[in-house]
Amino acid sequence: MASTSDIRNGLCIKYNHDIYKIIEFLHVKPGKGPAFVRTKLKSLTTGKVLDNTFSAGHKIEDVRVETHKYQFLYAEGNDFHFMHTENYEQISLMRDILDAPDLLKEGEVVMVIVNTETDLPLSVDMPASVVLEVTYTEPGVKGNTATNATKPAKVETGASVNVPLFINEGDKIKIDTASGSYQERVKE
After folding, report:
1. What does the pLDDT read at residue 65?
2. CB environment 16-28: b (16+ within 10 A), e (fewer)
3. On the chain, which terminus has fewer CB atoms closer than 10 Å, C or N?
4. Predicted model pTM
5. Domain range 129-186, its CATH number among 1.10.10.10, 2.40.50.140, 3.40.50.10540, 3.40.50.300
6. According to DSSP H, which parts of 38-155 are helical?
7. For 65-125, which CATH superfamily applies?
8. Averaged pLDDT for residues 134-161
């Protein structure tokens, strides 16, 4: 058993007969009344996100998990196939439990969280950012750089990302996997 002081991002807990992963949390100490923790929980079975508030000192049941490195092999419909990097065991996961499936490139190494009690995969943690090549984008208009203007661009995985006007086809860009937004152009 854990308490609200143990809450952190990525913690997996049992709540309402389901397993949830804490995406965001905020300890709040109002001037009047007791302290509480405001959380955003993501269900690891359905993928739904819900907001919940725990009072300070509330007991929560945490789930013992292990993380393993897996390499993304390929996608087949809604099934994503991964291979363990040490023992080469392959697993197949549904698209719903992935945080950013559109940004997943073949060969990418991700961390898979596995429930130690049941040995079932719970969720997939993407790297903080990925580098992808732009496969299609409209050419930028010269002289239109005074504002912070963006244009849509398609990357090699098929995802669409808003990029600055100076980005062209063939450029490699770094994308934040949490928000799916452009970070910077990568020179190689």
Report:
1. 87
2. eeebbbbeebeee
3. C
4. 0.75
5. 2.40.50.140
6. none
7. Nucleic acid-binding proteins (2.40.50.140)
8. 81
